[in-house]
Amino acid sequence: MNSFDVSLLLSGQYHDWLVSGFALSIKLALITLVFALPLALLVAVLRLAPLAMLRAVGVVFVEAIRNVPLLAHMLFWYFGAPEVLPEALKLWLYERNFEAASAVIALVLYTAAYMSEDIRSGIRSIPKEQMEASRALGFSFLGAMRLVILPQALRLTVPPLISQTLSLWKNTSIAMVIGVAELMYQAQQVESASFRGFESFAFATGAYLMISLAITGASAWYHHHHPVRSA
After folding, report:
1. The domain 27-183 belongs to what CATH superfamily?
2. Is-contact 113 61, C-beta < 8 A?
């Protein structure tokens, strides 16, 4: 039985592959978070808008995204969506890092659908009298949301949003199915090239665990310093 070769994880070509995959996984998670949060906020407000048509747009977005597995989203944006584009544009996209772009699009839409429901729950937890009072004072729907409701609701939704961030971090591993050279992809490459599967996947497991524990620690810190107070 082979012994655990720690040197493979500390230096050399395989170490570089694993570290580059780890860095790309972090980039995927951060870029997705930057785009998913504003989109989730927009969808949450749409779902509570006074116009039925706007509410319907929000409902269709959430249900269409949440009821399809992330793997299907990933494959659709990489293999399916480009087929409806003009040939020149498709070739231009494939000459660039289209795998990573497809993964980000799928992750942004998937994460935003779940985050929007958390934000909507936070908004609905604010007493409706506050909205009525804001409208009576002359605020528009968007003005009341922006200045009165959302600042309170977002504070309440920080814990579930942190949980969604944890899910997002783990979901970045799905990007390997379309060839994105993230952490799991690189771990598999190292295993194929060196036949050192234990070391390569131990590195990936440790990396996922380290970031997940950091996110969990951030959640615990927030709970400790900003406890939810009953109304």
Report:
1. MetI-like (1.10.3720.10)
2. yes
Site of tokens 């409806």: 84
| pLDDT tens, residue by residue, 185-202 | 999 999 998 888 888 999
Closest CA to 153 of 125, 173, 175: 125
Q: Which of 199, 212, 167 is nearest to 17 (CA)?
A: 199
Res 135: pLDDT: 85
User: Does the CA dihedral 150-152-155-161 come out positive or negative?
Assistant: negative
Q: How far apart are CA 118 and CA 121, in angstroms?
A: 5
The pair of structure tokens assigned to 48 is 């509570």
Of residues 147, 148, 169, 161, the one with CA closest to residue 119: 161
Residue 138: which residues within 8 A CB-CB, separation 6 or more?
none
Q: What CA–CA distance (Å, rounded) separates 200 from 8?
A: 8
Residue type at 63 in one-letter notation = E
What is the C-alpha separation between 115 and 96, in angstroms, rounded?
Answer: 30
> Computed from CA positions of residues 89, 95, 96, 99, in that sequence, does the dihedral angle turn out positive or negative?
positive
Distance from chain centroid for Cα 223: 21
Domain residue spans in the chain?
Answer: 27-183
Q: How is residue 224 written in tokens?
A: 């400790």
Cβ–Cβ under 8 Å, residues 148 and 137: no
> What's the pLDDT tens digit per position in 78-127?
998 888 888 888 888 888 888 999 999 999 999 999 999 999 999 998 88
